[in-house]
User: Which sequence fits this backbone?
């Protein structure tokens, strides 16, 4: 038999109960003009998480990566907190609901709940979602969500559904559930830090004179039949640029144009070179900007836009604001080049990542499936097929022979786990982030594929990760195919991966980093 509670414990619980009931009576007796109608309806809208999942849907539709992550983290936190409260907490404590004699009938507009009171499920869901959003979203979004969550929690007492203690317990559980998501999915910093360069205000004009913008109309899957119905992101970005910076020159290139030639000619006559496109297009713009010594303005319109998001630029409007702010930063540029090559002409630059092994097959499959399935379905199908079917590549890595199934080389250290992590804390640390799965005769397919898809590659046998300033890979006789910033390249012989430290000048938001 369990021992009865200690008399001191019983006394503390009785005093807490009296305080809880006193606080409930004070709230019940309060008259808040205008809120007699608002708070009951707000509380009702949060039934079954409808308010929060609707908010998550709206954030997801914005297309902004930070808001999508915030919506997903908040939803996951609700999925963790809700069963903790409703299946465990309520059944363990079985506290009765308050007596609502002092609550005006106008506030009790719907049937009161009959489940146990402690802890408050509505409050737990509200805190879980709001905390999850606050971990990822910018303040203009996070603050209203936190305010709505606080109002829902207060409404649970104001409408007579819960004692204040029930609400406080629910808020605590929800917040802990949201913070707990960081154990398996670390929160991403809003921007990566970079080295401040010289003041660029002498390069910036109010109407954009001296700025030459090169546009990839196909970025983000915007080409094809869809573009004839709705304007794609590149078209919308160009319209905004023309309206806000009317003196800027805009250059479009087509599928048959020589991209390097277009960017080179644009950079020759530009004081500031802008690139409107995805990561592959930004890569081409960076090459031209480095060659001609001009700063780069990134206007993201691609599918992933990893580099732009690392800078804290997620839209054309933010890019224009960064240009007008005149803040220049310097970032590292990584490269792959044959050790026997002569000069920069042999270098294959990358701003984000270079990968070989299964990832090259993934890119090939995605490009073949993209026209039939669309970009995102093609990526999902290609990921599973390539990871299941690919064979290791026999290479020599820093003098040691290895059979590499998957290799990732990042420009600067990445903070997340997995085969293809997406965020960095700095863009100027002078290091390469190297991650490889080197196998024996057989690749542990099921375990390895699952580890890649859930982002925990470190549990795969043969996985190794390290940081270095350079890396040498001796390619097989037919050369080594690798993807850099999503574009395919091929080099033969011994290939050196290295860094040009703080070589590229880029515009960054004034309030970032």
Assistant:
């Amino acid at each position: 038999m369990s021992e009865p509670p200690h008399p001191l414990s019983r006394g503390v619980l009785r005093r807490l109960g009296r305080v809880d009931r006193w606080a409930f009576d004070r709230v019940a007796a309060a008259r808040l003009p205008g809120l007699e109608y608002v708070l009951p309806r707000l509380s009702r809208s949060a039934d079954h998480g409808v308010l929060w999942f609707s908010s998550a849907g709206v954030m997801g539709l914005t297309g902004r990566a930070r808001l999508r992550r915030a919506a997903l983290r908040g939803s996951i936190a609700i999925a963790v907190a809700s069963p903790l409260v409703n299946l465990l907490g309520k059944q363990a404590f079985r506290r009765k609901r308050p007596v609502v004699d002092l609550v005006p009938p106008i506030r009790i507009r719907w049937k009161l709940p009959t489940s146990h009171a402690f802890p408050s499920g509505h409050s737990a869901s509200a805190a879980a979602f709001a905390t999850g959003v606050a971990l990822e979203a910018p303040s203009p979004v996070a603050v209203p969500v936190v305010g709505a969550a606080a109002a829902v929690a207060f409404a649970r007492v104001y409408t007579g559904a819960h004692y204040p203690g029930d609400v406080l317990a629910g808020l605590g559980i929800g917040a802990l559930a949201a913070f707990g998501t960081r154990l398996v999915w670390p929160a991403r910093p809003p921007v990566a830090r970079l080295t401040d360069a010289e003041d660029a205000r002498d390069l910036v004009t109010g109407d954009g004179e001296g700025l030459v913008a090169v546009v990839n109309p196909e970025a983000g899957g915007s080409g094809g039949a869809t573009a004839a119905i709705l304007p794609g992101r590149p078209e919308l970005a160009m319209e905004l640029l023309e309206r806000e910076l009317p003196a800027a020159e805009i250059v479009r290139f087509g599928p048959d144009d020589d991209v390097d030639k277009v960017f080179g000619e644009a950079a020759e006559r530009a004081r500031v070179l802008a690139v409107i496109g995805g990561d592959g297009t930004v890569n081409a713009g960076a090459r031209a900007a480095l060659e001609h010594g001009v700063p780069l303005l990134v206007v993201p319109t691609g599918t992933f836009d990893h580099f732009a998001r690392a800078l804290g630029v997620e839209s054309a409007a933010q890019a224009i604001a960064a240009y007008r702010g005149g803040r220049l930063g310097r970032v590292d540029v990584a490269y792959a080049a044959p050790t026997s090559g002569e000069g920069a002409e042999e270098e294959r630059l990358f701003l984000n990542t270079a990968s070989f092994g299964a990832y090259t097959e993934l890119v090939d499959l995605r490009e073949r499936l993209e026209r039939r399935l669309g970009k995102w379905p093609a990526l999902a199908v290609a990921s599973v097929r390539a990871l299941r079917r690919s064979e290791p590549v026999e290479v020599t890595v820093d003098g040691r022979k290895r059979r590499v199934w998957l290799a990732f080389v990042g420009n600067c250290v990445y903070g997340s786990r997995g085969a293809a992590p997406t965020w960095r804390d700095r863009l100027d640390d002078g290091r390469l982030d190297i991650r490889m799965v080197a196998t024996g005769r057989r690749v542990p397919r099921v375990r390895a594929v699952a580890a890649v898809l859930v982002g925990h590659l470190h549990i795969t046998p043969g996985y190794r990760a390290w940081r270095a300033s350079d890396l040498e890979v001796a390619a097989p006789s037919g050369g080594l195919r690798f993807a850099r910033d999503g574009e395919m390249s091929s080099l033969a012989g011994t290939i050196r991966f290295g860094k040009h430290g703080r070589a590229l000048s880029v515009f960054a938001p004034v309030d970032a980093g």
About this structure: The CA atoms of residues 121 and 327 lie 46 Å apart. DSSP finds 16 helices and 16 strands in the chain. The chain has three domains: 7-183, 204-325, 353-499.
